[in-house]
Specification:
The chain is α/β, with parallel strands linked by helices and 250 residues long. The chain has helices spanning 44-51, 74-81, 99-110, 115-128, 144-155, 174-191, 202-208, 228-234, 238-245; strands at residues 4-15, 18-29, 33-38, 59-64, 67-68, 84-87, 162-166, 194-198, 211-216, 221-226. It has two domains: 1-83 and 162-250, 3-Layer(aba) Sandwich (Rossmann fold), CATH 3.40.50.300; 91-159, no CATH class. A hairpin with a 2-residue loop joins strand 4 (59-64) and strand 5.
Length: 250
């Protein structure tokens, strides 16, 4: 079994005294595609933001690559953050920059590479996501699916061992979404990159997920963990079964 690269223990998220979830704990193993799933409002994106250090926990800990991300400060914290990549739901590309320039942003901020080397690396990352011919195009000139791929390329710019993706398939048609799912699986297998993916898209969950956890708004926490296909077929939790079978709870 691969070693854990993310360890979440006893995590509680709360804002203005209101608990979003509590007692959340799990591990993400090196090289797997790990999915955080659940219905709207259950705290999926909130959990991701705790895992990458944007939100401080009300209780509990998050260890990334062996370090407590919320206990680090200054240069030590920045060094750890450079070892993770994040792609937000919209792709979050800079509209006035070409795709290549977007991918170069982390290289400009965190390396001393000369401009020519940054440009070569940017084109290489775009090539990994199938955008070799789109390096000079602006975000407004590409499709939503291409924007998501460019966002992944930028998240990979510094060769991080872990990528966090927030709703990568949101707003995409089924064919484009399936292509993005295939890309995620390919990158995980070919590069050994660990993916943590937030999504509620059932087909994506079943296509990409090695393991998953499910959050529930009413339970204010985790209600399932394991292989998503096994949860679909064998879970004895009616909420989990309803989610995977797209059934309305009575």
């Amino acid at each position: 079994m691969a070693e854990p690269v993310v360890q979440v223990q006893g995590l509680r998220a709360a804002f203005d005294g209101q608990t979003v979830f509590e007692n959340v704990g799990f591990e993400v193993r090196r090289g797997e595609v790990f999915v955080i799933l659940g219905g709207s409002g259950c705290g999926k994106s909130t959990l991701l933001k705790h895992m990458i250090g944007l939100y401080a926990p009300a209780a509990g800990t998050v260890h990334v690559l062996g370090q407590d991300i919320h206990a680090l400060e200054g240069s030590a914290r920045q060094a750890l953050l450079r070892r993770i990549g994040v792609m937000w739901q919209s792709g979050a590309l800079f509209g006035s920059d070409t795709l290549a320039e977007n991918v170069m942003v982390p290289l400009e901020q965190h390396t001393r590479l000369p401009a020519e080397a940054r440009a070569l690396l940017a084109r290489a990352k775009l090539g990994l996501v199938g955008l070799s011919d789109a390096a000079a195009r602006l975000p407004a000139e590409i499709s939503g699916g291409m924007a998501k791929r460019a966002g992944i390329a930028r998240a990979m710019a510094l060769d991080p061992p872990i990528l966090f993706l927030d709703e990568p398939s949101a707003g995409l048609d089924p064919i484009t979404s399936a292509g993005l799912d295939a890309l995620i699986v390919q990158l995980a297998r070919d590069l050994g990159t660990t993916f943590v993916v937030v999504t509620h898209e059932l087909q994506s969950i079943l296509s990409i997920g090695d393991r998953c956890i499910m959050l529930d708004k009413e339970a204010k926490g985790m209600i399932a963990e394991g292989d998503p296909r096994a949860l679909r077929d064998h879970s004895d939790n009616p909420v989990v079964r309803a989610f995977f079978r797209r059934e309305v709870m009575a």
